[in-house]
Amino acid sequence: VQLQASGGGLVQAGGSLRLSCAASGRTLSLYSVGWFRQAPGKEREFVAYISWSGSSTIYANSVRGRFTISRDNAKETVYLQMNSLKAEDTAVYYCAARSGSVSMKTLDYAYWGQGTLVTVSS
Fold it and tell me: Which pLDDT score is estimated for 101?
């Protein structure tokens, strides 16, 4: 499966953005999906996870209550709604897919999108 992340941009602190992860090649409903992010000089970190059906979601403590992950399998797309953005949310955001069950580890994901840059100004 090929993944294409989009929706990043420049936003003021307190604002919102919605990221999209569009799939092609194989049906996205076969995979669970995670969002990760990587800030300059830092390691890539887990942000959110959604199961193949959408019935199970997991969030990093740093984004819980502000970010919402969802999916529309008919549109082959996973979303990350980001509200109340903070300067520390600035990073390149990646979506990734895996065939197995829940995981917050980058090494467990076989398929990655190219990343989309989110910049939050304070």
Answer: 87
